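Worked example 3 (structure in, sequence out).
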């Protein structure tokens, strides 16, 4: 199953770049170009997904929510955000889907 994860890019040409994924803690990369850090971040994210037993479903964010997220990051560097697509085994999301189903079911009962 393919999932899109938000990738935060920090830096600028000539100074270098770093990146991280806010929805996949522990995934970081640094390099000389945006292209290089995107490739390295995708490799690191693929490795992180492979070692996990469960994984939260990445939230859908509007462009406004992304702008607010970027505004909340304290840095002097230029920031941007892009999505990268990861192949994630669907079994990692089973727990989250069950919780969402149970919550919806309980909401109907108590309403």
């Amino acid at each position: 199953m393919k999932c899109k994860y938000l990738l935060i890019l920090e830096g600028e040409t000539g100074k270098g770049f770093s990146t991280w994924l806010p929805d996949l803690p522990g995934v970081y990369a640094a390099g000389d170009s945006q292209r290089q850090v995107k490739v390295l971040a995708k490799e690191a994210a693929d490795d992180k997904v492979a070692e996990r037993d469960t994984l939260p479903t990445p939230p859908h964010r509007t462009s406004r929510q992304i702008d607010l997220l970027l505004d909340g990051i304290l840095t002097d560097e230029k920031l941007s955000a892009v999505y990268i697509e990861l192949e994630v085994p669907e079994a990692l999301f089973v727990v989250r889907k069950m919780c969402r189903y149970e919550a919806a079911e309980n909401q109907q009962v108590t309403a």
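Notes: Residues 34-51 form the longest helix (18 residues). The mean pLDDT is 78.
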